[in-house]
Amino acid sequence: MIKIMLISNMEKFLEKIQKCHGDVLLHLPDNTVCNLKNDHTALQILTMLHSTNKELDLSLTDVRDYGIIMDYMMSAAA
After folding, report:
1. CB 65 within 8 A of CB 17
2. Selection from 13, 3, 1 nearest residue 47 by Cα
3. How far apart are CA 22 and CA 54, in angstroms?
4. Which distant-in-sequence residues (6+ apart) come within 8 Å of 14 by Cβ?
5. Using one digit for the tens of pLDDT, what is the confidence trace for 6-63?
Protein backbone atom coordinates (compact mmCIF):
# COMPACT_ATOMS: atom_id res chain seq x y z
CA MET A 1 0.00 0.00 0.00
CA ILE A 2 1.14 3.54 -0.77
CA LYS A 3 0.34 6.41 1.58
CA ILE A 4 0.16 9.81 -0.07
CA MET A 5 0.16 12.84 2.16
CA LEU A 6 -0.13 15.56 -0.47
CA ILE A 7 -1.02 15.77 -4.14
CA SER A 8 0.52 18.97 -5.42
CA ASN A 9 -1.00 18.76 -8.91
CA MET A 10 -4.22 16.74 -9.10
CA GLU A 11 -4.39 16.94 -12.91
CA LYS A 12 -0.93 15.39 -13.35
CA PHE A 13 -1.68 12.80 -10.67
CA LEU A 14 -4.86 11.74 -12.50
CA GLU A 15 -2.90 11.53 -15.76
CA LYS A 16 -0.46 9.13 -14.07
CA ILE A 17 -3.34 7.03 -12.76
CA GLN A 18 -4.73 6.67 -16.28
CA LYS A 19 -1.29 5.51 -17.52
CA CYS A 20 -1.24 2.66 -15.02
CA HIS A 21 -1.55 -0.86 -16.44
CA GLY A 22 -3.68 -2.27 -13.63
CA ASP A 23 -6.20 -0.88 -11.20
CA VAL A 24 -5.42 1.95 -8.78
CA LEU A 25 -7.44 1.35 -5.65
CA LEU A 26 -8.31 4.03 -3.10
CA HIS A 27 -8.87 2.64 0.39
CA LEU A 28 -11.44 4.71 2.25
CA PRO A 29 -11.67 5.25 6.03
CA ASP A 30 -14.75 2.98 6.24
CA ASN A 31 -12.70 0.09 4.77
CA THR A 32 -14.34 0.23 1.35
CA VAL A 33 -12.20 0.29 -1.78
CA CYS A 34 -12.79 2.32 -4.97
CA ASN A 35 -11.08 1.91 -8.32
CA LEU A 36 -9.74 5.28 -9.48
CA LYS A 37 -9.25 4.12 -13.07
CA ASN A 38 -12.87 3.48 -13.93
CA ASP A 39 -15.08 4.95 -11.21
CA HIS A 40 -16.05 8.61 -11.59
CA THR A 41 -17.40 8.69 -8.03
CA ALA A 42 -14.06 7.46 -6.73
CA LEU A 43 -12.34 10.38 -8.47
CA GLN A 44 -14.73 12.78 -6.75
CA ILE A 45 -13.99 11.14 -3.39
CA LEU A 46 -10.26 11.45 -4.09
CA THR A 47 -10.66 15.17 -4.77
CA MET A 48 -12.73 15.63 -1.62
CA LEU A 49 -10.26 13.74 0.58
CA HIS A 50 -7.38 15.66 -0.95
CA SER A 51 -9.05 18.99 -0.12
CA THR A 52 -9.28 17.99 3.55
CA ASN A 53 -5.53 17.19 3.71
CA LYS A 54 -6.18 13.61 4.78
CA GLU A 55 -3.58 11.02 3.86
CA LEU A 56 -4.61 8.75 1.02
CA ASP A 57 -4.10 5.00 0.99
CA LEU A 58 -3.65 3.54 -2.47
CA SER A 59 -2.85 0.06 -3.68
CA LEU A 60 -1.89 -1.04 -7.16
CA THR A 61 -2.83 -4.32 -8.82
CA ASP A 62 0.07 -4.32 -11.29
CA VAL A 63 3.66 -4.12 -10.05
CA ARG A 64 4.65 -2.09 -13.14
CA ASP A 65 2.55 0.79 -11.85
CA TYR A 66 4.66 1.50 -8.78
CA GLY A 67 7.21 3.21 -11.02
CA ILE A 68 4.53 5.43 -12.55
CA ILE A 69 3.24 6.57 -9.15
CA MET A 70 6.74 6.97 -7.73
CA ASP A 71 7.68 9.09 -10.74
CA TYR A 72 4.79 11.43 -9.93
CA MET A 73 5.80 11.60 -6.27
CA MET A 74 9.46 12.32 -7.10
CA SER A 75 8.61 15.04 -9.63
CA ALA A 76 6.12 16.61 -7.20
CA ALA A 77 8.80 16.79 -4.53
CA ALA A 78 11.21 18.65 -6.81
Report:
1. no
2. 13
3. 24
4. 43
5. 888 888 999 999 999 999 999 988 999 999 999 988 888 888 877 777 788 999 999 9
